[in-house]
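User: Hi! I have a protein structure encoded as tokens and I'd like to know what sequence might fold into it. I'm fairly new to this, so please keep things simple.
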């Protein structure tokens, strides 16, 4: 029986597996999906988990339920033997394993992008996996509660200050949702007349959020009108947006900005971007800006049995040619920009990868990946959002409705549960409790597996 092995169950890998299981149903083909977890994570809604809007399981979709004709193997890929057509991996208990394949699809996704800034790897936390979101939610609640019991205004203010570095999609949404969350926590804790000391009631110790980015505006990769909408909403909410600014050093007591200002804080959220999974560099094949070089058909040149898609692949964007041909190549010598590392592209590349893998086995005809952006949506919390569906710029409640409608349509499951949580959040106060399930040391910034919390005695970096 022919075996197709797919590595990674993110947007690209999940769509590849789902499309192949449908198109090859009834054929003598085994589809195997290797993934560290038994769920697909809907990353765009992760900021709502950190802000206490959605329960964690709402953004996790069961692979067994949505991929009934796919065999799931739990583990992390460690090495690809191209000559022997074998994939080596480590299972959740640390035991080695291997899978022989006839076709291999690499959709391993991305991890936190690192910069050589002193103290960042020690004191910052990323936002690429569910453990990081759970840790941040607990951490935010803990800091606000400890601020209430702090004996001095300086300590109280530092614990109530939250710094987010990176004003892209993730950083903007984390800051927007986080400010609402902490304001609500502060209001709940301030209802009794004298629950805490005078430091808690000082105007200088109320929740403070800073959003930093070296770029000249928030959401620099999007249309300027969306950036202006997001900037306006954030500032009106009380978020301190500082563009053209980054950090020079991180310490246990705060961060030093590159303009010389020191900001006392106990919270540093790192959202500066992503980089391909380290497995990509270890495969031993040509890369382009850290991503595995592929043709427009998502095939690795010189290896007809290997395909790649999503954040791990340098896919030429056939809608954006580059004069002179000095960028990604379509396989025919024409240069193109690379497709952005977004869920929109990853999902559609997964569908094309499935089609072309099936075509390589004699089922159907291969086709090149080509996709025009359909627009973007950024949830800014409450009823606010910035969106441009089909290029039409929207803001306010209308954009909020479009954004949530888009997320419900894009999720492969849990739609009713997500909608129910949104309704409950609109009607009831959020539950401000610490579960204590994820410790700081369990979610290091420099990790190749942000989807997994580090276990005692095991180094997952």
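Assistant: Happy to help. Inverse folding works backwards from shape to sequence: for each of the 461 positions I chose a residue that suits the local structure. Here it is:
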């Amino acid at each position: 029986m022919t075996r197709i092995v797919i590595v990674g169950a993110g947007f690209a890998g999940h769509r590849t597996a789902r499309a192949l299981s449908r198109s090859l149903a009834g054929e003598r083909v085994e589809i195997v999906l290797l993934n560290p977890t038994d769920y697909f994570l809907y990353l765009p809604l992760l900021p709502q988990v950190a802000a206490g809007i959605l329960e964690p399981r709402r953004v996790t979709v069961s692979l067994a339920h949505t991929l009934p004709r796919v065999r799931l193997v739990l583990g992390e890929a460690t090495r690809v033997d191209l000559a022997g057509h074998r994939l080596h991996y480590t299972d959740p208990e640390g035991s080695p394993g291997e899978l022989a394949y006839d076709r291999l699809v690499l959709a391993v996704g991305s991890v936190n992008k690192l910069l050589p800034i002193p103290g960042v790897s020690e004191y910052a936390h990323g936002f690429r996996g569910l453990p990081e979101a759970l840790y941040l939610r607990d951490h935010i609640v803990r800091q606000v509660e400890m601020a209430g019991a702090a004996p001095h205004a300086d300590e109280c203010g530092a614990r109530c200050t939250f710094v987010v570095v990176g004003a892209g999609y993730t950083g903007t949404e984390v800051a927007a949702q986080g400010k609402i969350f902490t304001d609500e926590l502060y209001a709940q804790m301030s209802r009794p007349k004298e629950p805490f000391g005078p430091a808690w009631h000082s105007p200088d110790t109320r929740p403070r959020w800073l959003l930093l980015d070296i770029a000249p505006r928030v959401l620099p990769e999007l249309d300027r009108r969306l950036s202006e909408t997001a900037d306006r909403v954030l500032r009106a909410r009380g978020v301190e947006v500082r563009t053209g600014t980054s950090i020079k050093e991180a310490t246990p007591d705060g961060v030093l900005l590159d303009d010389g200002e020191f900001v006392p804080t106990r919270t540093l959220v790192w959202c500066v971007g992503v980089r391909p999974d380290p497995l990509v560099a270890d495969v031993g094949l040509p890369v382009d800006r850290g991503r595995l070089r592929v043709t427009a058909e998502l095939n690795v040149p010189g290896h007809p049995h290997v395909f790649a898609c999503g954040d791990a692949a340098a896919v030429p964007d056939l809608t954006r040619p580059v004069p002179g041909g000095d960028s990604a190549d379509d396989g025919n010598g024409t240069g193109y920009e690379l497709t952005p590392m977004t869920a929109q592209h990853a999902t559609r590349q997964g569908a094309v990868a499935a089609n072309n893998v099936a075509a390589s086995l004699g089922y159907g005809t291969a086709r090149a990946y080509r996709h025009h952006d359909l627009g973007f949506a950024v949830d800014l919390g409450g009823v606010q959002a910035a969106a441009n569906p089909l290029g039409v710029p929207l803001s306010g409640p209308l954009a909020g409705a479009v954004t949530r409608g888009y997320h419900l349509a894009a999720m492969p499951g849990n739609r009713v549960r997500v909608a129910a949580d949104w309704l409950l959040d609109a009607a009831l106060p959020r539950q401000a409790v610490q579960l204590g399930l994820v410790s700081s040391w369990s979610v290091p910034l420099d990790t190749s597996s942000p989807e997994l919390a580090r276990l005692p005695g095991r180094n997952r970096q």
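A useful reference point when you look it over: The first strand starts at residue 2 and ends at 7. Feel free to ask if any position seems puzzling.
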